[in-house]
Amino acid sequence: MRKYIGKRIAISVMILFCTTLIIYALLRCLPASYVENMAMQLASKPGAKPYEEWLLQLNASYGLDKGIVPGFFTWLAGAVQGNFGDSWKYTVPVLEKFNEVIWLSFAMGAIAFVLELIIAIPLGVIAATKQYSKTDYAISAGALVGISLPTFFFATILKLIFSVKLGWFDLYGLVGRNYAQLDAMGQFLDKANHLVLPIITIVIVSVGSLMRYTRTNMLEVLNADYIRTARAKGLSEKKVIYQHAFRNTLIPLVTIVGGSLPSLFSGALITETLFSIPGIGYTSYQAMIIGDIPFSMFYMTFLAILTLSGNLLSDILYGVVDPRVRIA
Fold first, then answer.
1. To pair with 182 at 20 to 30 A between CA atoms, which of 4, 40, 125, 283?
2. pTM to 2 decimals?
3. Class for the domain spanning 94-321
């Protein structure tokens, strides 16, 4: 297993190198550029240097006067040492801004992910064990609705009902108008109140696919020969389903769990933007639209590392869930 993990890590490092090179090249080729916008602003001031001179000076100061490959290796040399530069938009070190916003997105993602598992897996199992019943049709219809709903549409409906009509929640932001006058517990509850609708949005638009995935895999297991044998031996239906069938259903579900690792940290970009929640998704979106290469480059690299780590975690968990799965 150690040899296998070491080999996978080495392959992941090679993939990460190629991925970051492609990301850097794409960011350098974007039509919008913070440097160009800044050069225009500086050149528009009375008595300022021409736009071309400002552009050359700023490109040199940010290392953009080099080619894509030399520029990438310059960035890579700093990244290996933990130096990702300063964000052009937020004017602070990239890691400082990242550490400021990541934990809010992680809290939202973790809560939504736990709720998704609690809702989707039991409902998927129930739908499979009651195939073609009214319960199965109702659960499947609900899952299809969740899969089909666009995030922006569902979030708008929630805001219309619970913010505009009922007035239970604020439309935007993380804190209310009276946040500064509240005590510590009041401030915590105020933030929690502002996160209710974003978390509901994430859960509803994500739970349907996992529910359908669980149902499909559970049906395959329930039709296996060893399940019929267990029933023929006189085992109770509860024991057949939850001790024999469900454990084998966990094997494909491990892929979903491992693949969900990036979503816990990457932030729900659309949801955070719609509700103006200052998490990593919203922050990265604001950085990308002005061409903030240092922050965008770090964020994309971070997602690539999480994706590769999630795939490796899934492979390792296979052996934990199913003792029959072993690495030769």
1. 283
2. 0.80
3. mainly alpha
